[in-house]
Design brief:
By secondary structure, the protein is of the alpha+beta class. The protein folds into 3 domains: 1-41; 44-202, no CATH class; 225-367, no CATH class. The chain has helices spanning 2-28, 30-41, 57-63, 92-138, 147-168, 197-202, 207-222, 225-246, 253-291, 296-299, 301-312, 330-347, 349-353, 360-367, and strands spanning 47-52, 70-73, 85-88, 172-176, 183-186, 189-196. The protein has a 6-stranded mixed β-sheet with strand order 3-2-1-4-6-5, sandwiched between helices. The protein is globular and about 75 Å long. It starts with a helix and ends with a helix.
Length: 369
């Protein structure tokens, strides 16, 4: 027990020191931190295109003397932070990246507006809940809500307000000239979405399919998955370090085997949490797509495309998710998304309002301001 407590204190102290150092470094030069983090995420990419969701890409291209489009190149020998070098389109891959940027910006703005509508509703609900608790606390007699419930309601209201306001600010979209099939957000770079050329080419043949990808990534941010993932992973890893520390080094073969397999057990638990967060983001992403008046049955075909791609490259997924996989298998995600889409079509009131309008633009921007 003494060894357990001692190791726990050491881990807590070391973690606090690392956290403090990271905070000091961040506050000392935030811009340098952002640029360094961004460059680290581009480590495996030579060519990319990064822009804000409210940029006029055509005018930006003309201003850089590239009227037909441009991309950025990373100098392979660069060792210091320096401005990205833009250049004109030279290859078919460059042209695909530029076309993908135009499409991604258009779709993202549509989905972002849908997410904003959703967060506006949740903000109203949180405000009403907080007001009702305040009113109940002022009412004399009877068992009412506690001070803890009031503080929790206030935190939920502030969280909804913050996320609503973040959706009103410009977001950065970065397209990577990479064959990998991937899109992601990271807590280290707020309001920033990365998407690879491989995903655009193989999994998003229509704008509705791309809308689900964008809604999924926005959902990771709105649900706080990056933050929660960091915390959960740290807790799991720390718990296994403490368990190993409690083992008697003379405990024989059993203790030796546990030390060997414990990292794999921890990794399996971490990946299990990751798969749950992915399914949560799928569900909320479809809800955002419903707010954006997307064609939900068409949107979920993205999972079919993903499964077909993995099968075509000899990476056919099994019937159950691998123990160490960070994402559920595409077939499972498609089936769950199919049920969610059917429910939203039948029961989601705002989605039913979309049918009153003829075009996508009218459906999205005409129904509510």
């Amino acid at each position: 027990m003494f060894r357990f407590a001692r190791t726990g204190f050491l881990l807590a102290g070391f973690g606090a020191c690392c956290f403090g150092y990271g905070q000091a470094k961040l506050l000392d030069d935030y811009q340098l931190y952002v640029e360094t983090t961004f460059r680290s995420l581009l480590a495996d990419t030579r060519t990319f295109l990064s822009f804000h969701d409210n940029d006029n890409l055509i005018n930006l291209s003309i201003a850089q003397n590239s009227p037909r489009g441009f991309v950025y190149d990373i100098e392979p020998t660069a060792t210091t932070l320096q401005p990205w070098r833009s250049r004109r389109l030279k290859t078919n891959q460059d042209q695909d990246l530029w076309n993908g940027a135009m499409k991604t910006q258009r779709v993202f703005n549509r989905v972002k507006h849908g997410a904003l509508l959703l967060m506006e509703k949740r903000l109203v609900e949180a405000e009403k809940n907080y007001a009702s608790i305040v009113k109940a606390l002022k009412s004399p007699g009877g068992e009412g809500p506690t001070q803890g419930q009031l503080e929790e309601a206030l935190m939920k209201y502030r969280d909804a307000l913050h996320k609503r306001d973040e959706l009103k600010r410009p977001w950065t979209l970065t397209l990577l000239q990479s064959p990998q099939v991937n899109a992601f957000v990271t807590g280290n770079l707020p309001r920033h979405v990365f998407i690879t050329q491989g995903l655009l080419r193989h999994c998003t043949h229509t704008e509705d399919e791309l809308s689900l990808v964008m809604g999924h990534e926005l959902s990771h941010y709105l649900l706080g998955h990056t933050r929660d993932g960091f915390i959960n992973d740290a807790i799991i890893k720390g718990a296994f370090v403490l368990l190993v520390a409690m083992l008697d080094p003379t405990g024989g073969l059993g203790g030796f085997l546990f030390e060997i397999i414990s990292p794999y057990i921890g990794e399996a638990l971490i990946m299990s949490g990751s798969r749950e967060r992915e399914l949560e983001a799928d569900h909320m992403g479809l809800t955002i797509c419903a707010e954006a008046c997307c064609d939900l049955p068409q949107s979920i075909n993205m999972f079919k495309n993903m499964y077909a791609f993995y099968k075509s490259v000899g990476h056919e997924e099994g019937e159950t998710a691998a123990l160490f996989a960070s994402h559920p298998i595409s077939k499972e995600r498609y089936q769950k998304a199919k049920g969610t889409a059917l429910y939203l079509k039948e029961h989601y009131t705002d989605f039913k309002e979309c049918k009153k309008y003829e075009s996508a633009a009218q459906r999205l921007f005409g129904r509510r301001k």
